[in-house]
Amino acid sequence: MALQPAPENRVFQRTTYPPSSSGQYVVYWMQMHRRLESNFGLQHACHIAEKLDKPLLIYEGLRPDYPHASPRFHGFILDGMADHFEFFRKKEWLLQLTEDGKRLVGKGAGPAHYLPFVPESAEQSRGFFKTLCESASCVITDEFPVFIVPEQNRALEKKLRESKTAFLTVDSNGVIPLKESQTDPYSAYLFRKILQKKFASCYQDFPLQKPLSMRKQKHSLTLELPLTKLQKEGLKSTSRLLENWRGQASASLLSPLRLDESVGIVQSGSRREAMKRMQGFVSSMSSYTEQRNDPDAAATSGLSAYLHFGRISIHEVVQSVFDRYDLNDSWKGLIYNNGSRGFFPGPPEVDAFLDEALTWRETGYHFCFHRPDFDQFESLPDWARRTLLEHASDPREHIYSAEALENAKTHDEIWNAAQRQLRQTGIIHNYLRMLWGKKILEWTKSPREALEITLHLNNKYSIDGRNPNSYSGVFWVFGRFDRPWQERPVFGKIRYMTSEQTRKKVKLKKYLERFGDDNQGRLL
Questions:
Q1: pTM (predicted TM-score)
Q2: More confident residue, 112 or 296
Q3: What is the 3-state secondary structure (H, E, C) of 188-201?
Q4: What is the reported pLDDT for 524?
C-alpha cells in the first residue's frame, strides 16, 4: 500500500500557504494523538515529507504550566514519551543536543527524527517551538476541540501566517470526522443518525497502521538553532528524565517541575498498557451488557484515558471488536435504521459497547467542535437553563463547601466512595459518576456553583478530565443530551438520582469495602 495522505475531510488548512520546498524539514507537533501507529496526523506529515523529499521532525512537548498540571497527567504522558525516546534512540533517529550545545543531531538517516521537550518551567520553553517552526516547510499538528489545544493552535496559526508558513491540523479523534457534522448535535439520538449514515464510508478510510515504515526516503537531520541557555538546560534535563523514567517508581524525578503533588500517579500511560487493556476487555466482552453498570464487576473497557491521550485510536478499538466477533466485513452491509439502537451486528454486547464508544463519545466531540462555549453554563439547552434558574433559590437539605466535597466529607457513604475513587484512581465508575454529579447539583448553593465545582473536581483528578466525552458526562448531569423529567425542588425538570435507588440497582459491597470509610467526617 502506498503512503497516502489523510482523508480530505480530516485535514484543516490553517494558513493559505502551500508546503515550501525551500524549508529544511516538515514538523509534526504531537499534541493529543501521542502514538506512532494508526495516527492520521502523523500519516499526513509523512506523506507531505515524502512528497517534498524532506526530513520529518516529530516534536512532542510537555510543559509544566497547563491547567491542573500534576504528576498524574505528567506521569501518564511521560510513560509514552519514554517509550518514544527509547525507540528513536535505538534507531539513532533521536535528536540530541551536542556537547557544545550548538546543534541538535540525529546520528542515523531515517523516515523521521524525534525531539522531546519536557521543560522544568515555562521560561525554559518560551519561544522554543516557534524557533523550530522558522525553518519548516510545513507544520502539522492535531485537531482537538477542547482544553488548551484550540487556543494553542490559534496562536500558532497567527505566527505561521505572519511567516507565510504552511500550517495544517489533522483530525484523528473519531470514526466520523468533525467536518461531517454541520451543527452541534443536541442529543445522542441525532448524532446516531449521522453515525449510521456515514459509518461505512468513514470507516473504510482507515489510518495506516505504521506510516513511518512506509516512507521510502530516509534523511539525516542536524539543527543549528539560536537556543537560549534556559532552552539548552531544558533539553538536557529532558534527556535525563526520559532516560531514567520508570513510571510511578520515578515520581520523585518530577519534583523540579513544581506540579500539584496532591494528585499522584495512578496507572501506566504506555501504548503497551493501552493495547493490553483493549485486548483483555474485548476477550471478555460477553459480560459487558449485563455488568457494565455494576461497580463490583469491573466490566467496562478502561480505555477512556488511553483514547484521550492518544495512546490508542478508536479505529483500533472498533477493529479489535470486529476481529473478535468475526465481523470484519459487516460494516460494508450496515443498514441505516433512523437512529435507533441495534445498528451493529453480532451479539448484544457489540452494539452496546460500540454505541458508547462511537455514538456517545463522538457526540461530545462534535458538540464541542461546533460550540466554543462547551464548558459554560450557557451551552446547556434552553429548557435546562430555564428550569435550573427557576429552582436556583430552592431550599437545600444539605449544602457542602467545595473543600468538603473535594475531601469526600459528606453524609452520603456512596458519594464519598465515588469521590475517593476519583482522587485515588483517576476514574469513577460510569454509573456512579452520574450519581456523583447529581448530588453536587443537589448539595451546592446554585446550579452555576455546582457546575463550577463539578468541572473543577473532574478536570483536576480524572485522567480523561479535559476531554469532550468527559465534558459530556459532566454536562449531562445538568441536562445536556437529556430531556425534561418530572419537576421537583432544586432539580426542576432535570433528571433526578438518589443513593437509595443506586443501592437497589447495582452491587456495591466490594466497591464500598475498597473506597468506603467508617470514620468519615462531616463538614456542612
A1: 0.96
A2: 112
A3: HHHHHHHHHHHHHH
A4: 31
Sign of the Cα torsion 310, 311, 316, 317 reads negative
The C-alpha cell of 196 is what?
A: 449510521
Cβ burial, residue 480 (10 Å; 0-12/13-18/19+): buried
Specify the DSSP class assigned to residue 359.
Answer: I
* pLDDT 10s digits, 424-471: 999 999 999 999 999 999 999 999 999 999 999 999 999 999 999 999
Crossing angle of the two packed helices 71-91 and 271-283, in degrees rounded to 10: 110
Q: In what order do the strands lie in the sheet with 219-223?
A: 96-97, 104-110, 219-223
Q: Do residues 49 and 214 make contact, with C-beta atoms less than 8 angstroms apart?
A: no
Sequence-ordered list of residues with C-beta below 8 angstroms from that of 87, at least 6 positions apart, any chain: 36, 114
244, 55 Cβ separation under 8 angstroms = no
DSSP alpha helices (H): ranges in 426-508?
430-442, 447-461, 468-476, 499-505
- Enter the C-alpha cell of residue 317: 478499538
3-class SS at 115? strand
Contacts 24+ apart (CB under 8 A), 158-161: 159/130, 159/133, 160/14, 160/15, 160/133, 161/15
CA–chain centroid gap for 102, Å, is 36
Parallel, antiparallel, or unpaired for β 56-61 and 25-29? parallel
d(CA 370, CA 373): 9
C-alpha cell at position 345: 451486528
What Cα–Cα distance (Å) separates residue 178 from each residue in 5, 194, 484?
17, 11, 28
Residue 122, exposed/middle/buried by CB under 10 A (0-12, 13-18, 19+)? Answer: exposed
Mean pLDDT (whole number) for 239-259:
96
pLDDT band at 518 (very low <50, low <70, confident <90, very high): low
Angle of CA points 437, 440, 445, to nearest 5°:
145
**pLDDT of 343-358, one tens digit each?**
999 999 999 999 999 9
Residues near 427 by beta carbon (within 8 Å), at least 6 away in sequence: 302, 304, 305, 421, 462, 463
Q: What's the grid cell of residue 27?
A: 514538523
* Cα distance between residue 78 and residue 282, in whole Å: 26
State the amino acid at position 247 in one-letter form. Answer: G
pLDDT digits (tens, 9 = 90+) for 39-75: 999 999 999 999 999 999 999 999 999 999 999 999 9
Angle between helices 229-244 and 71-91 (to 10 degrees): 90
Going by C-alpha positions, the residue among 214, 57, 217, 210 that lies closest to residue 138 is 57
